[in-house]
Amino acid sequence: MAVIPFVTQIDFMSPRWNRDAWARIQADMDSEKQRICHCSGSIMAVRPGEAVKPILGFQTFLATRLLPLPDGNIRRVNKEVIFYTNLTRLGQPGEIIESWQNPFTNETVRVVHAINDPFNYTISETLILAPEDFAGDRSKLPKIPLIFPWQQLDAETLVLATDMHLNYPNPLQPEKWPRESAGPKAQVSEMMRFFVKRADLENPALTAVPYVGTWQRITPWLPWMLMGQAPGHCQYLSTMIATSDISCLPKHVREYAEKNCPQMLSAPTEDYGPSHSSLELYSRQQTPAPRK
Prior knowledge:
Layout: H1 15-26, E1 35-46, E2 53-68, E3 74-87, E4 93-96, E5 99-101, E6 108-110, E7 114-116, E8 121-123, E9 151-152, E10 157-169, E11 185-197, H2 198-201, E12 212-219, E13 233-243, H3 251-260, H4 278-285
């Protein structure tokens, strides 16, 4: 495998430059190298008429590799996990848990960590669109040039914003999954901010660009919480960083992964699939909880 060619001259209105900058931030244009992204944060319960309440912590990591495609685009091959934790006194993520007492139902439930292998997609000069957002022939999705809303913080720092807002048929339909399903549709948003140095983006010697960032996610109640269609949702708040190996992972996260899912600590070396979301995997791997 060789280094995937990339452009470095900053041009905010160029789909090719946006593609290459995004790819170098997510992973490494040298296909021999992987990248590990680590996120750490808390999950808030958002319920009507109540103050937002922290209820869980989480530790996430992604193991990602970039592969060149024959058409010149880039295939992002990736594994990702979310380990749920308790919260420390200061509201920070603590130890990884296997059960959790739901503060809204007083029921002790089994925690189902998210282990997604793989979750791949293609990085090209056009925006990735969700087919479920468009009626008719899904092969005829509009091709929208990949132009991100970059922000220049100062002379040295740029911010890449990647927001995704989805509303798709829930793989956990309430008829079959009355206690796990938040309803017929899954309304999910992910909002990331990557803080990078302008000089790093312009440096042709850097096949991967260093960053620090934030990840926010809005999602229905997690199915294993057994909240059903109770009003409200979860909001994830976290910080993130990336390195070329697992050294960025806290010791207890690395040890838990080594014991329970060691295959997730290294990125794929080839493109395999199919890719499924966490909700899809839950519907395939779990069984509905007994009705109350």
